[in-house]
Amino acid sequence: MISIIITAFKEPKTIANAVKSTFSENLPPHEILVIAPDKETLNEAKKTKIKTLKTIKDDGKGKPAALNLAIKKSKGEILILTDGDVFLDKNAIPELLKEMQNKKIGAVSGRPVSTNAKSNKFGYWAFLLTNIAHIRRKRAVAKNKRFFPSGYLFTIRKNLFPNLNEELLSEDGFISHEVYKKGFKISYAEKAKVYVKYPTTFKDWIIQKKRSAGGYNQIKKLTKTEIRSLKSESKGFLDFLKLVSSPKEFFWLIHLFVARIYLWYLIYRDINVKKKSREEIWKRVESTK
Questions:
Q1: How far apart are CA 247 and CA 245, in angstroms?
Q2: How far, in Å, CA of 194 to CA of 99, rounded?
Q3: Which residues of the chain have pLDDT under 70?
Q4: Distance CA 121, CA 252 (A)
Q5: CB-facing half-sphere around the CA of 203: CA atoms within 13 A
Q6: Domain count of the chain?
Q7: pTM for the whole thing?
């Protein structure tokens, strides 16, 4: 049996689309669990009237705490994790499950695809970063190197799922570290597409990236393992240049590099100097809803 777990927070406008995109009559025995702290989101999920759907109200302590609760209530041996503000391609779940047939595979990442228009700076940044992540994941698999799946969509064996510290900012990075530590591989299902709306303002971009990239800095402290840094992000400049098709896009690319330097400064300040808690760092990104 598989458990499809959709974590959400105040997403009544997008949750129905997220739920419907995970359901198919052709799925193996499964359950769809929507977990959220707000009744509005849970009520909208129920309106889909999918028989395999169950809703869980959490305490609003954040995604790690919500996942811990959802895992306890889940019945599946295979877990598919996604969010309430994204939606899946119709072939995403079959593609993920296909990879899991290999018993050496502990987890599988889907492929985030930006729904933002590429014609403006923030849409181009989303296009650029999702495609660079795609290129690097494919390269890592080909070279049998470690990589880390996307929190927007990934699959994991339930017996490998660790109990999550509620202060985690990037639970997907920590989960991945634990999968590798237990001797399993992580695979990449590039046809398992998950469609994501990314930030459309600089303020929201900083908020989102601070909690994702900052989470990897946090994981370094917890595990003594460096997963992601400004130095590692800066490698492969030619990969970025291959995705530039005009002078305007090159100008936006330079803006992106400057923004990433500023981002890592904020991460160092907030986590290492000010020692802010998850609650202080994690802010809702309104423009992605």
A1: 7
A2: 16
A3: 213-236, 271-274, 276-282
A4: 6
A5: 5
A6: 1
A7: 0.89
260: its two tokens: 């990433």
Instruction: Kindly state whether residue 73 falls inside one of the protein's structural domains.
Output: no
220 near 177, Cβ under 8 Å? no
Q: Count of CB atoms within 10 A of residue 274's CB? A: 11
**Three-state secondary-structure class, residue 135:** helix
Would residue 206 count as lying in a domain?
Answer: yes
Could you give the C-alpha distances from 187 to 101, 107, 153, 179, in angstroms and in order?
11, 6, 13, 11
Q: Which pLDDT tens digit goes with each residue over 190-212?
A: 999 999 999 999 999 998 887 77
| DSSP secondary structure, 70-81, as one string | HHHH---SEEEE
Q: ∠160-163-169 over CA atoms, to 5°?
A: 110
Please count the other Cβ atoms lying within 10 Å of the Cβ belonging to residue 263. Answer: 19
Per the listing, tokens 């997220």 go with 18
> Going along 182-272, which residue ranges are E strands?
185-196
- Residue 254 forms part of a structural domain: yes
